[in-house]
Design brief:
This protein is mainly α and 224 residues long. The protein has one domain. Helix content is 81%, strand content 0%. The protein contains nine helices and no strands. It has helices spanning 2-19, 21-41, 51-68, 73-78, 81-86, 92-120, 129-153, 160-187, 193-223. Helix 2 runs parallel beside helix 6, helix 6 packs across helix 7 (129-153) and helix 7 (129-153) packs parallel to helix 9. The longest helix has 31 residues, at 193-223. It is globular.
């Protein structure tokens, strides 16, 4: 299954390297979101306390939603999903491959967003890089796990661009809240390491639950 999933990731990234369609639109949308908040909230060079953590995760959430909306677009336009489903490999490999692709794409976006938000809002994100990386990684996997499943479910629906956030946000709100609280704990003075560790553990628990449920439901969902 892992070999097939990696082949799907390789296929998607080979296309993305040529077109850069999803990467550029995702980054542009995320950067625009951060800049709007910066112009609205930063007054005379002073940013609101604890605003950086919330704005970082909001930008990640919006960028992830935009990327998820395009996850299965190439398969839908090219009518290649049926061929993937008929391949002699576990069908859950399709889900895992798409999940890995979205997670890697969001990591690229976060590499740009973290220093930008830190600069604009005077937030010391890089003072605890490993803890921040754990929070971002766990939150990204949890958000992408649910989003990839819903993107596959809504692939043939005409109003999928509207329905995706309606279905996605209520379920992933706990992930975003845990990410914001954990990141805010890292930015506190003094740093609340115990709190950040607790929220990281909660995010990992969400990841286990969401990925397990998605793997369990993906094949019946796609078969029907």
């Amino acid at each position: 299954m892992l070999k097939t999933a990696l082949l799907i990731v390789r296929k998607d990234f080979a296309i993305e390297v040529k077109t850069r369609e999803i990467l550029y639109t995702t980054l542009l949308f995320a950067l625009s979101c951060v800049l709007v908040f910066a112009f609205a909230l930063v007054k005379e060079g002073q940013a609101p306390t604890d605003a950086a953590a919330a704005i970082l995760w909001i930008a990640i959430m919006f960028a992830g939603t935009l990327a998820l909306g395009r996850t299965f677009e190439r398969e839908r336009y090219g009518e290649t999903l049926r061929a993937l489903m008929l391949a002699p490999a576990p069908r859950t490999a399709i889900y895992v491959g798409k999940l890995l692709g979205i997670a890697v794409l969001l990591v690229f976006a976060e590499l740009v967003l973290v220093p930008l938000v830190g600069f604009l809002f005077s937030a010391a994100f890089l003072s605890h890089p490993l803890r921040l990386a754990l929070l971002l990684g766990a939150g990204t996997v949890g958000f992408a796990a649910v989003g990839t499943l819903f993107a596959a479910m809504l692939m043939r629906v005409r109003t999928r661009d509207v329905l995706l956030p309606i279905l996605l946000y209520p379920i992933t709100v706990p992930v975003i809240i845990a990410g914001v609280r954990g990141t805010a704990a890292l930015l506190a003075s003094p740093v609340e390491e115990a709190t950040a560790t607790m929220w990281s553990a909660i995010l990992i628990s969400f990841d286990v639950v969401f990925v397990t449920l998605a793997l369990w439901t993906f094949e019946p969902l796609m078969t029907e």
